[in-house]
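mind reviewing this stuff:

——
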Amino acid sequence: MRNAKYCLTLLMLACVIQTFGSDQPVVHPEDFLNESSALTTHLRIYSDPTGEITINDILKSQPLFEPFNESLSRDQVYWGKLRLVNNQEVTKLYLLYVGKNDFIDCYFVEKDSIVQHEQSGYMYPQKLKSVPKGSYYIPILLNANATQDLYIRIEEKIHNDPEFDLRLTSGTNWVYEILDKHIVDFIFQGLFWIVMIYNLFLFATTKTKAYLYYAFYLGCIAINYLFLTDILREYILSESPWFTIYFIPTTILAVGAYWVFVNDFISAKKHFVLYYKWIRIVSFIDIGIFFLSVIIIHFTKEIYVVTHGLRVVALLNALLIFGLIYRIYDSKYEMVKYYMYGTGAMVVMGVIDTILWDPSTSQANLMKYGLLAEIAVFSIGLAQRKKIREKERRKALNKQIDQLRVNESLAQWQKEELEKIIDHRTKKIKKKNKKLKRAIKKAETAARVKSDFLSVMSHEIRTPMNAVIGTIHLLLDESPKKTQLEHLKTLKFSSENLLILINDILDYSKVESGNVQLEHIDFHLRELTKGLGNTYEKKAAENGVKFNILIDHNIPSMLKGDPARLTQILNNLISNALKFTPGGEIKLLIHLLAKSNGRVKLEFAVEDTGIGISKDKLKLIFESFTQAHADTTRKYGGTGLGLAITKKLIKLFDSQIFVKSKVNRGSKFYFSLYMEEAAHANAAIELDDVIMKEEVKGKKVLVVDDNEINLMMAKKFLDKWGLVCEVVTSGQDALVKVFDTDYDLILMDLQMPEMDGYEVTATIRGLDNIDLKNIPIVAVSADTYDNVKIKIAEVGMNDFLSKPFNPMELLTVVHTYTRGTHSTSTIL
């Protein structure tokens, strides 16, 4: 019985609460179309601290909705309830302004069922809203004689505290209100952009930076007003409204752009140097604060912290503007007054708007009119500034014209004086030129005499050497005894190196001038060192010295390079070591330092246990005609050219020589060279030798030379190889032979009495008979190739063979030009 009474009491209490909670005032929309405050008295609200309650939860549980309290907390979600009644016989359309909230959801309920769901608010994208323009409106369509319950949910995420600022308006009034607002906003925007584009055009045509800075300033203001007037959110970022919060700091960006423009507008660098620097600093600080604010908003989403900071910064900038105006107002510079008038109204309006500024409510309406005044004054000021600049330029131009006239008179006087000086100096120069021409002529004559002398000496020395080397090759080919073979090889090696030394002495001037050209041919490194060993072992033994050659076994046998120059370098170093080593040991060491991509880097070192060199003489020994000690030449012999030539030759290889030495302990000369690997062609050489001899048999060759020994040596080799060889001693006899016999090749000496090789060749090449004029002609001369290469090419010779020649070189040339017709010269 007691339990039944308790349940009955609870039921009665619930009915009382339900009755009280359902005491929902009725709203007749027509009574509130022109009233904005009384509508909230009909609103009942319910707070949701969790933010998780849905409309279905509300309809199911029917919680207690209390009368509206204007104090709402940002941390909670609120539900509002309105009951609208249409007593008219027609369907009516109204628009309900809810308030500036991030998220607004309105549910239309009839008989506890949801019949419609509308969304609005700052953060909802436009595609979810039934009213795309005017972000806080909900459309309400009431049927005739109908009652409608509205459940309105509001929520804030980033903006101010939630609010219920309910206002009803008819559809027609709403259209006029929105149109009025947007038309004004678009007019202002259009004005900003037109003036900005016009200033950019002026900058493009005049290159005046003030127009560019002013366009930048106007652009920043235009972007800021896109944000403040909701054009940015409702037209540009309508589907991504959350991005608009990043435009909150554009206000301070516009201030920074303002300082950049003002600095140039008033010509602060020229007229107000003291303020120029701090204006620049302030502009950089403002622009830096803009970027910092964007970063803070991005990471914290706390716009009010940024807003309060920007308000302080803007007010400080306003104080700086007033301070600048106070300091420069009495300046005589005409642009100051335009700056003061243009900035004055804008700053006053801006300060008022800044103090009242709320990022979600304020649209800086007062600032618009201040900016209009500023734009007008600044535009007039820029036009006047242009006139002032033009006036200054004209003044400067007139000054320059006057100065030019003075300069012209001065220049005329200077011209007359200069002509006198030039006449005097010209006479002196002519005299000096005559002397210089005589000196040049003497120098050319001396150079020609020197060249002729070297050419004659080269010819006279090489000619007997040709006989010596040729005889050695003939003896080697006649199967000498084993004991004789080593002597002949030594003699061959020594004679060839003697020829190299003779060439170096004759061409010393060429080495000095750096005109020596390196060869790039295949050679056998171990054969080269074997020849060195054969030459110096006996001589070293006679002096009581051991001579050893040590070669790294990893070094390829066949290399590409200049074996003659390498031999000469090693000859000089070994001879030098042998000369200054009375006893002990001399070693030639060749190491492999690196190997990659077919290239090797070798280190050559010559070590001895001789008398050594003192430290103060190490650099001196590489100078021409210089010895380490004054009595060295008398005691040990030598010209002092060896090491000097060696150093220059090594330099041709893009390397350098080093020396380490201790007195009475010995010396070490060493250097490194890069060389290319060559194919191992030993067997191929022998095979080529046999094939070439077989293929040249029976070929007719004419040898033209005025030296009987040269003719004899050439004929012996050619006869030995099975060729038909005829010899003549003069150019005239050669021409007779050419007409009488069909030759496959002519070996032509260049220096002959009466008619030299050049004339003979030119005569043959000038014949009408095609067969005769195309006979291959190879120059054979004791002169160097560098001295004759141009001339032999001009007369039409096919190739060049230097005397004394190696038999294999002669065989190769003969084989090359007797296999077929060779009408084209190989001389380039």
